[in-house]
Amino acid sequence: MPIQILMPELPDGAQAAQIVKWLVAEDDEIAAGDIIAEFTCGGDTAFLIEAADAGRVARLVVAEGATGLRSGQPIAEIADAGEDEPRPLAAIPEPTTSAPLSAVPAGPASSASAEAVSDHPVHPLAGHHIDSHSLEAVSLPHLSDARPARPVVQLPGARLLRRGNAATIVAYLDQDEVALAAARDLLLADGLDAEVIGLDTLHGPALEVICASVSRTGRLVVVEPHAADWPYAAEIAAEIATRAFDDLDAPPLTVRGARSPGAQGDRPDTDRAVVKLVAALRRICYVF
Description:
Layout: E1 3-6, E2 18-22, E3 29-30, E4 35-40, E5 47-50, E6 55-60, E7 74-79, E8 158-162, E9 167-172, H1 176-190, E10 194-199, H2 204-217, E11 220-224, H3 232-243, E12 253-256, H4 270-284
Helix pairs in contact: 1-4
C-alpha cells in the first residue's frame, strides 16, 4: 500500500503553506532523508520537506504552486521498494447491446471492468427503486488508486460520476448536482479528490458499487434529498458499514441535501447543501 507523505509542522504563527517547487517527479526513486520539495508560508523564507521513507514516488497529491496547505495534509504518496505500481482504473468501453449487467449509460462517464457480485444477503429494502434523476456524468482526469481494492463496478441504478480516492460521496436520487459541486469545492480548497456515485436504488447489487469504491477511499458520506420520507442515507451508511467494515478508516456520515426541484426547476437551497456536504467531507478526512 502506498505510504503518504504529509505536510510537516508549519512555523509558529503560520496558518497555511504553499508548495513552491517539487524536487522529485512521479516514478522517481527516493531514499529516506532526501529533500523532495520546498514550501513557504507567505514570506520570503523557503522551508524544505524531507522524505521519511524510501521508495518510488507513486503520486504527487498536490500540484506545484498549490496554496492553503495545512500541517498533516497528504501531499504525496510513495510505494515501498519493490512494490508493484498501483493498478489504474481501466476505462470502460462504449456500451453495446451485448453488454448485460455492466453496461454504462450513454455519456462520457467511465468505470472499471466489472467483477462478479459478492454473495451478500439482499438489503431489507431491496426492490425499492425510484426512476433515475441522473445528470450528465462529469469527465475528469484519471486519478491513481490510493490503496489496493476491487475495481469499481457500474450497474443499473448506480452511476460512477467522478473518480477520486480521498472519500466516496453517494448521491441518493436527485442529489448528483450537490455531490459534484461539493467534490469540486473540496478539491479546490483542500486538494482532496472525492469519488461521486449516483445511486437510484437500494437493491443489493447496486450497493456493491459503493463497497468497491469504499475499498479504495476508506471513507463514505451519503447525501439524500432534504425532504426524504425515510432515512435512506442512514440505511445506506449502515449497510456499507456492515459490508465494508474492514475498509473504512472513519465512520460513515450522512447529510440532508437540497430539496427536489420546484415547478420552475429552481433549487434555492443547493448552495447551503453543498456547504454542509463539504463540511462533512472535511470532517471525515480530518481536515480542520
